[in-house]
Amino acid sequence: MNYTYQTIAHNTITVTDPEDTVSAPGKKEDRPIANDGGQRRIGSGWGVEAAPLDLKEWQTKYDIYHTGHIKKIFEQDGITIAIADVTPAYTNPASGKGTFSHRTRRVEKFWRIFSYDRIDGVVIVFDQVRSTQASFRKRWLLHTIEQPRVTENGFVTTIAPNNPLENQLAQGGGKLTAHVLLPKNPIIQIIGGKGFDFFVDGKNYDEKGQVAAMVRTAKKNAEPGAWRVEVMPSVEAKEYLFLNVLLPSSGRQQPAHKVKLLESGDHPTCEVQGPTRTTQWRFNRGGNDVEIKIQADINHGGASRTYHVFAER
């Protein structure tokens, strides 16, 4: 309830209001729950509002259950883009009215543009977050099994090869290299390892080591929580942009890509020079769209193409 059920255990964003400390209602007595800065607490398990029984109930209680909307899906030229409004997961009309479930009003906007270039193996995540108070700490989260390492441009993490005698779905190991382009001058914090594998709000909720042991007992090749990367702005502001380029590769291989931020301001743009082609991704501060330019594509004789993807209004 303090970790796994909450947003802190997932690859998204948290916005922490120190006053968001209302206890969970219980049958006999209320129960304090860690303030993870995450999404509204709804659905089965919380003892507040169970999951809807059918579509009619979901529609009747729309403000409670509605947590997000994929506004646009784009697939062209080996590129897939999803543009999503995730604001309702954090804020609804009941937020800020003193309830445990709907929490304090912290997030006025959270849109995510998730892009994948399958030709050159590039994942780009662009997030726009606006909070009600500049002082509310914003964290961009990514969880890993092995310990990540902070680099000059972001962070890197690897996973060792599986033993084929123990796992039928054996893998040869992998590596993820991350370029943190925005915010500028970020604070990158690595949290995890023994004593910090289920850490949230100043406490490690590992039940004296029993959680990880129970997970592995329940499923032989299970992968319980272990490490996470937190990317944070170094200065306070109500609105922040997060722009991260993730480069997965097999084994210990070093990605051949070159990544750079071309400009910031109202149109942050990143350029990725990959093995096959060069792509430029131009985002829009305040808008929910992205322009993609594909250049120097050896599969198309060096021809360039441009796509402009808008979210549905």
Report on this model:
With 313 residues, the protein is mainly beta. It has a single domain (7-310), classed as Beta-galactosidase, Chain A, domain 5 (Distorted Sandwich). It is built from three helices and 19 strands. It has helices at residues 55-60, 62-65, 210-218; strands spanning 13-16, 69-76, 79-85, 107-117, 122-131, 137-144, 149-150, 154-159, 174-182, 187-192, 199-200, 203-204, 227-232, 239-250, 258-263, 269-273, 278-283, 289-295, 305-310. The strands form four sheets. It has an eight-stranded antiparallel β-sheet with strand order 2-3-4-5-14-9-8-7, with no helix packed on it. Strand 16 and strand 17 form a beta hairpin. It is globular.
